[in-house]
Backbone:
């Protein structure tokens, strides 16, 4: 599945609600899902983790839809030419630095 | 760009560091980026938002790599057959419910 497919799927499924709710209110849902992802990483099963990663991605796609951001463009711009820190495809940034 | 491409790109770029750092320490970076995404949504430019969405996706992919989760499989399982709440491709869940 492509990032564009993900955004289109989530747009079709939820855009009417998402737009009415707005970015701020939607962000709360994202944070809730990030919390559930943390729980699943701490003591969940592989199946539960799959579900929580999917939910975080879905809410991120929702916010991107409402904010008019293309996730595929975003990743290609920032990471498509190598690490944004050192420019290499296998990062050589010092460990103390991002990312 | 597909979700698999994203995971492979981030794996190539950062996996050695990511694995050494572990899921818990990597999660802190994800949260930092989620905070920066919030800032960019509140008062950032479109370009800044692109960068922050990319960073959140990159850290999410990193954690998925370390946790052995396939993001594409995750989304297909949870959302590929319709809304996990109502089963429809255009969600009809009550607004009070997720998602």
Residues:
């Amino acid at each position: 599945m492509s990032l564009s497919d993900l955004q289109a799927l989530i747009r079709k499924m939820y855009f009417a609600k998402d737009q009415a709710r707005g970015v701020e209110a939607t962000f709360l849902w994202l944070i809730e899902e990030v919390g559930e992802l943390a729980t699943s990483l701490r003591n969940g099963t592989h199946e539960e983790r799959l579900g929580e990663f999917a939910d975080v991605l879905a809410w991120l796609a929702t916010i991107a839809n409402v904010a008019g951001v293309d996730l595929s463009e975003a990743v290609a711009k920032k990471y498509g030419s190598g690490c944004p820190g050192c420019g290499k495809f296998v990062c050589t940034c010092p460990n103390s630095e991002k990312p």
